[in-house]
Queue: 4 jobs
Job 1
Amino acid sequence: MTKQDPLTVARQMAARTLELVRFEIADAWKAYGEAKAAVGEVNRISRNDRHDRAISSDRYVVRRRSAAFGTMNRRRGHFLRAHKALFAPEAALLALAN
């Protein structure tokens, strides 16, 4: 087994971590967009669109809207946490570059 330069290994690890964080950000952004679309769908449900009151009562719409907003807020939080996680590997790469 050959001995590797620790600086090279650290750079490779930081680059890989940065790549993984970018993938996580992309996935979180996609999930947030889908959650926003679900909120829009729920907000478009009006009384005129609901023909059968037994199926889509006012309480059902309120519960569904609440669930959609809760999901959207969780997805936004996940995106923001993933975006904050981007700073650590970027800082590591900058420190290792010098």
Note: The chain is about 80% helix and 0% strand.
Job 2
Amino acid sequence: MHQKEFVAKDGLAYTITINVSGEEITVSQGTESLGVIDLKRVINPRGSNYYLVTVLDLEKCKRIGLGEASLRYHREVFRLPLTANGDVREGRRSNESQLTRDGIIFIQKMRAKQVVEAEDFHDAFSEDE
């Protein structure tokens, strides 16, 4: 398990925890779990390994820098690219198969900052969505 304290834009300290496999990032404050990002490790036979973001569930801690800090920490620990395509769920229990508008915008911003790499997916997160 990998763990890091992070002071968010709201001035409060949060804990970012990544499990050993790198497939779950949790954000908490004290004993309260505030959000999770699920990822799937993809091992490509051509040698390009990466993690695919499958769930973004950070509703309780949006817009204070925790999502970006979590993804940057993941890249720092595992040293593999992160990607996201059009099939990211907005929450673990969600019946929806697609991200909300906030999630789409978040992934676009992370791509612009080169935290998340673009999937060769015909612009899965275009401005028209």
Note: DSSP finds two helices and seven strands in the chain.
Job 3
Amino acid sequence: MSRTWTSRRSLLTAVGLFAAGVAAGCTSRETDERLATQEHPVTSASGDFTAALVPDGVELHPTIRDAEGIEVWTDDLGHVNRYVPGVVWERGADVLWVLSADHGNASVHRQDDGTWAKVPGSEGMPQDIAELAR
């Protein structure tokens, strides 16, 4: 076998492995049941709230609703369908994470007065959620 053939075969193998790794990474995020979608709202740790992606024209808005279905928070930033954000609750707290390639990551916390506040950035992000953000 020639050296050129071996090099090409090695290159094709490396490209194939890379593509498989990328596909596996995308698939695991897309199939994670903790992620909210338009069709799949997810419930907070307390069970008192749900989060979903709500369409508004060509944009999606992460939204939190209470147990009665009343909207208590919606992201003021629209996310285009091409960059669907990850929307996931922390496992042990009513803290929602919006994982966005479009606008950056943010957490949404309930304040003492009952309102919800969005905090930009990844500070304090649990490891299991950080893995989804990749």
Note: The chain is about 25% helix and 30% strand.
Job 4
Amino acid sequence: MSNLGAYQEIVTAAARMGGVENMIRTIESGAVAKAAPALLGKGAGIGALVTLAAGGVYFGGRRLWSMYEARADAAEGAKEQLRAVLDVDGQEHPDYPSGGVDERTPDTDAGEA
């Protein structure tokens, strides 16, 4: 008697597989086997992107740090050069007799608070 259509086919297949639970397990394992390669590919792609991003952050950070150090070294060199110009053996520099303050032009733009 096959007047139930697709339902009858499912019931018959479940009976051949040893019950409904066995049929569900078989369907699940087949679905996992089909999905696993795609999931593995996605995982590998995501892993590669994360690795590239981490490498970019690392090398970008190193570059920024080296730029910072170069600027700090240049600033320190400029400070030493300024000290040398303003203080020659503890004496005033001949071009700047007042210790580096240029008194030729008064500061007329300064407002009082």
Note: Residues 15 and 23 are 9 Å apart (CA to CA).
